[in-house]
Specification:
The protein has about 280 residues and is an alpha/beta fold. The chain is about 40% helix and about 20% strand.
């Protein structure tokens, strides 16, 4: 028996290849369209998420802007508590309250702390003022009162820096020493008082008055005794007075009326007697 094999002709092979290629192309096209749809869905999903985020952010910002005045009003509260601290020996506390009250018209953040401190320190009896705000509604005021060290002529008192401040009633300070001098020289007069008075303290003495005359000559008083120092070498002349006090004056101090240290090589002493006396001593 004879078996024959037949091979498809060329046209058949081409048709077969064409059908196979068509099927593959349709599959590829279908896959591409599916991928496109999936990509499109992803894009819209991302856009939707971004839009939702923007919407949410806008809502948050809008709510914040809407609530900002309410929040600020809650933070910026009126002052309802004022604490005033310090020792008040001469300054009435009501004076401080009168200075503070006008500033309380402003709320917490707008209250002018520097302006209030300046207003307080312009009060004669206030040496230093410290003002601070304590949230939410408290104002703290700390006052350092002036410390009077001496009376100034007959119109005020001096602090330790020689600053003059006026008072209505000087009778309260009658126990303070009385200082004299030109108005602009008050700090210098105070400095001389502090220096010279320190030298006689070990003697158990204290100055009750000190001044500088128009001529520039210095003098001081210890009770009823007047001591003239002159223009220059005040510390050396005070040392001479201390030596004389130990040697001669201490035992007779109640009889001394005046001591004159203006001599170059001696001291003149006037006594509470009719004839008086002069004592000349070399350095």
């Amino acid at each position: 028996m004879e078996t024959r094999l037949y091979a498809p002709d060329r046209d058949g092979r081409d048709r077969l290849k064409s059908r196979v290629a068509g099927r593959q192309a349709r599959k590829t096209h279908g896959a591409s369209r599916l991928e496109d749809r999936q990509a499109s869905v992803r894009r819209w999903t991302q856009r939707g998420a971004q839009a939702a985020k923007l919407l949410l952010a806008g809502m948050v910002i809008g709510a914040f802007v809407w609530s900002l005045p309410l929040l600020w009003n809650w933070l910026d509260r009126p002052i309802i508590s004022v604490k005033v601290e310090g020792e008040f020996r001469y300054l009435p506390k009501e004076t401080v309250e009168q200075q503070v009250t006008p500033f309380l018209a402003e709320r917490f953040f707008r209250l002018d702390v520097a302006g209030l401190q300046t207003a307080l320190q312009s009060v004669p009896w206030i040496s230093r003022a410290k003002v601070r705000k304590i949230w939410p509604e408290t104002l703290s005021v700390r006052i350092q009162e002036q410390v009077p060290v001496a009376r100034w002529k007959r119109g005020g008192v001096l602090n330790g820096d020689g600053e003059v401040f006026r008072v209505n009633d000087l009778s309260r300070f009658s126990d303070l020493p009385l200082l004299y001098g030109k108005e602009a020289a008050a700090p210098q007069v105070m400095q001389q008082y502090m220096t010279l008075n320190q030298q006689i303290r070990p003697l158990g003495l204290a100055m009750t008055a000190l001044g500088q005359r128009e001529t520039g000559s210095w003098w001081f008083q210890i009770g009823d005794v007047e001591v003239n120092l002159g223009h220059r070498d005040l510390v050396k002349r005070m040392q001479r007075f201390v030596r004389l006090y130990h040697v001669l004056l201490q035992k007779q101090w109640q009889d001394v009326r005046r001591v004159d240290l203006r001599y170059r090589d001696g001291i003149a002493v006037s006594w509470n007697t009719n004839d008086g006396s002069r004592v000349n001593r070399s350095n």
